[in-house]
Amino acid sequence: MSDRSATPPSPSPRHRHRHRVERAPRGTRLVPSGSAGRITVVALTLGAIATLIGVALLWPTFTDPELDPYFAQASGASVMTERGEVVSTEMAPCGSPDNGRVLPGPPLDPRFPGPECPRSIVRLDTGPDAGREVLLEIPPGPGSPDLGAGDQIQLGRSPQGATDIYAFEDFTRTVPMALWLLVGAAVMVAVGRWKGLRALIGIVVALVVVVGFVLPSILDGNPAILVAVIGGSAVLYLVIYVVHGINLKTHAALLGTLSAMLAAALLSWVVIETTRITGLSGDSTTQVQVFVQHVSLTGLLLAGFIIGALGVLNDVTVSQSATVFEMRHLDPHAGPVEVFRSAMGVGRDHVASMVYTLVLAYTGSALPLLLLFSLGTRSPLSILTSDVVAVELMRSLVGAIALALCVPLTTAAAVWLSRDVTPEELDRATIGTRA
């Protein structure tokens, strides 16, 4: 009797399980020893090597292309901008000969007084006339800026003989935009904590790849679709692992995203070839066609389709992969078919919500254009099939199809990767991905 009372009771299975989870180190990085894990690591490593080779072969020269001088005027690049602050604004007759010029004294009255309009005195903060004042007359009308004392603005400076002529260019938004960016970053870090910070790093990495590699490489005349695929792969390898860590979940998400991206690239080419959309309806693409003729406009459209699909693909694949591993963690003995079917149920809901999100996002950004179309006499079918609308509709369609494809691809990859993982490894993997 005393021997039995001296023997400590053995912990229940539930207690042993909880004890093991609590001792698992946070941030565990798991590379499985099963065949699925080894094949996955080899495949992703080969993909990373191919991406690095592609980046090296397509690396831009960063040399400025020879452009027609008229391009600078047509695009506004020849206009030098200076910063200034509005000192005062009053209503006065328009037509002063001092409009747009540096004031040697009080502004002159117009010789032939016209209707009254807002006249602003602006003190220049930069440029050769810094510290001096300029008169700006801005006739009232739709879209005219409403200037008030203390407003920080940008002025375009155009040399005209021995003097410079100034005109309103835009408001200076550096400080308020920087404050809003800080607010957004603070909210992301406060809610997402360490993952929120890594998400911000991922955004910076993606922008650096697009601005520092994709755009200059396309400008060098390299095939735009190849540049987009290589650049997209580089973004995915960097962002997914930086934001979500190196573990089974991210391996499966990366496999699904890369597969869907390649499908989106092929689908984009087929869509553009069959619908014969050109993109020439936009002012920016027209200028590219006229002034940067060595860049393929079709390739540029393809690159836009591919890059545009990456954001939604990454969101869905990470969520879908996490769903599979959570299910395997809750029921380690569930069969692959059962896990696949359950995860696909979640994925279908996610795809449905993301598809109409894409459509609503385009509709919201295109409201002014759709409003102009509605004022005309064109039929709705003619509007929808016009080049300017068709480009965005087809881009949304490609993204939606790639989105639908990435769900079963990622789910299958996650189920395949998790099949050889023990319950103990699932504990460590789940804790690592939640860190």
| Number of E-state strands | 5
Helix content: 55-70%
N-to-C SSE series? HHHHEEEEEHHHHHHHHHH
Alpha-carbon distance between the two ends:
47 Å
Low-confidence region ranges: 1-30, 429-435
Give the strand order of the largest sheet, numbering strands 1, 2, ... along the chain.
3-2-1-4-5
Number of domains: 2
Mean pLDDT: 78
Secondary-structure class: alpha+beta
| Number of helices in the DSSP assignment | 14
Q: What is the radius of gyration?
A: 29 Å
User: Per the principal axes of the C-alpha atoms, what is the gross shape?
Assistant: elongated
Strand content: 5-15%
Biggest beta-sheet profile: 5 strands, antiparallel
Pfam family, one: YibE_F
Keywords: Membrane, Transmembrane, Transmembrane helix
InterPro entries: YibE_F (IPR012507)
Protein name: YibE/F family protein
Report what the structure shows:
The structure is a single chain. With 435 residues, the chain is α+β, with helices and mostly antiparallel strands. It folds into 2 domains: 22-58 and 184-434, no CATH class; 79-172, no CATH class. It contains 14 helices and 5 strands. It has helices spanning 2-6, 13-23, 35-57, 69-75, 174-219, 224-244, 248-275, 283-291, 297-330, 336-365, 367-375, 380-384, 387-418, 423-434, and strands spanning 80-93, 116-124, 133-137, 152-160, 163-171. It has a 5-stranded antiparallel β-sheet, with no helix packed on it. Helix 5 packs across helix 6 (224-244), helix 6 runs antiparallel to helix 7 (248-275) and helix 7 packs antiparallel against helix 13 (387-418).
